[in-house]
Amino acid sequence: MKAQSLGSIRKSFAPWADPTQQPYIEFDAVTKDFGNFTAVDDLTLSIYRREFFALLGASGCGKSTLLRMLAGFETPTKGRIVLDGEDLTGTPPYRRPVNMMFQSYALFPHMSVENNIAFGLKQEGMGKGERADRIAEVLKLVKLEPYAARKPHQLSGGQRQRVALARSLAKRPKVLLLDEPLGALDKKLREETQFELTDLQYELGMTFIVVTHDQEEAMTMADRIAIMEKGQIVQLAAPPEVYEAPASRFVADFVGSVNLFEGKVVRKDAARIVLEAPGGGEMVVDSTAPAEIGETAWYAVRPEKLRISAEPIEGANVLSGEVWEIAYFGDMTSFHIRLDNGQIVRVSMINRHRFSPLQLTWHDRAHVAFDADAGLLLNR
Ligand code: ATP
């Protein structure tokens, strides 16, 4: 499946698909060992100017180490990092045109907002007049003008986050690195700030690299996402492709929720594959993936792509079981259906109407079905 057919969010921005574009940042076969532990393993990656790039992975997968090597706080054991054509090996952090915003924000508690921002500029030797202009500019950018004289403890979590951002932006780095930038914010504020960050990045035309373990955050903000596992990139793609065409079971399961139906390939033709269905029977799925008859494969279907009914459903790709869990979220309801072989199938249903016509409760018999093109056949 091609990425284009999945739809892109920022349609006109895809420098990685244009062979005439030069990458802005290049990790070239970079390895980082800590003793005999390899945190980043022979990783090659190109990031483009003005890109909002996300490194996504579980705790310990090496994403912060990668960012820290770009910032200059760690030195690669092997390989090199190039920024704008310049090899960064040997360049100390303060000489690199990158700035890092830390998880903890690391604000000076005894200094006002204004002075927190001024600190780095003073260190750079910037004159008083220019400094005042620059501070005013970034405070306006992050909408904190009325708070210039406050100390960090007189601000909310979201405001502190914006001070940290203003401080990073004030130095006008070419690249801003954000390590779990929204981790300390509550859900609502996090959602708002995600949009603010993307707007700001677009307005400033800067390159942002964000490290996160929150897939929603990566999906909302990034042009492309690199999914990392054990120091390596296991998929690099735009958000719709990561979600709709995951490269492996690991990615499918890590990003969003997924049902994985395991079965042997029974038959195949040019466009369709017939798999053993869970608990007997067959599943017919659209797929041109290389799959050998007799081999085990997995059909990955997202919960929102299944239909659910209290009545038996006619046709192919129907599974039946017992309603095991129901979670009502207001906008949608999530059902867990326990098939007769014990597998749990997740189905999510948008609550388009205030009163649901679906009368299902715990322990009822339920039937779920999906179309032949609802998911993706994976063989790893
Ligand atoms: P998190 O989301 O928890 O921050 P991460 O993906 O950013 O995780 P890293 O901080 O890059 O992970 O760490 C990757 C691995 O390298 C971890 O197993 C960590 O324990 C190890 N590691 C990181 N820094 C050091 C160090 N200075 N010495 C030894 N091991 C380290």
UniProtKB/TrEMBL annotation:
Q: Which GO terms describe its cellular component?
A: ATP-binding cassette (ABC) transporter complex
* Domain ABC transporter stretches: 25-255
Query: So which domain of life are we looking at?
Result: Bacteria
Q: Which GO terms describe its molecular function?
A: ABC-type polyamine transporter activity; ATP binding; ATP hydrolysis activity
| Enzyme class of the recorded protein, top EC level | translocase
> What's its EC?
7.6.2.11
Q: Which SUPFAM superfamilies match?
A: MOP-like, P-loop containing nucleoside triphosphate hydrolases
A biological process (GO) of this protein is:
putrescine transport
What reactions does this protein catalyze? ATP + H2O + polyamine-[polyamine-binding protein]Side 1 = ADP + phosphate + polyamineSide 2 + [polyamine-binding protein]Side 1
**Entries under InterPro entries matching the protein:** AAA+_ATPase, ABC_SmlMolc_Importer, ABC_transporter-like_ATP-bd, ABC_transporter-like_CS, Mo/tungstate-bd_C_term_dom, P-loop_NTPase, PotA-like, Transp-assoc_OB_typ2
Pfam families attached to this UniProt entry: ABC_tran, TOBE_2
In the UniProt record, does the keyword Nucleotide-binding occur?
A: yes
Q: Does the keyword Zinc feature in the UniProt annotation?
A: no
Q: Which keywords, in A-to-Z order, does the entry hold?
A: ATP-binding, Cell inner membrane, Cell membrane, Membrane, Nucleotide-binding, Translocase, Transport
Self-association and partners: The complex is composed of two ATP-binding proteins (PotA), two transmembrane proteins (PotB and PotC) and a solute-binding protein (PotD).
PANTHER family per record: PUTRESCINE TRANSPORT ATP-BINDING PROTEIN POTG (PTHR42781:SF5), SPERMIDINE/PUTRESCINE IMPORT ATP-BINDING PROTEIN POTA (PTHR42781)
Q: Which family does it belong to?
A: Belongs to the ABC transporter superfamily. Spermidine/putrescine importer (TC 3.A.1.11.1) family.
What's this protein's function? Part of the ABC transporter complex PotABCD involved in spermidine/putrescine import. Responsible for energy coupling to the transport system.
User: Can you name this protein?
Assistant: Spermidine/putrescine import ATP-binding protein PotA
User: What is the organism of origin for this protein?
Assistant: Aurantimonas aggregata
Gene behind the chain: potA
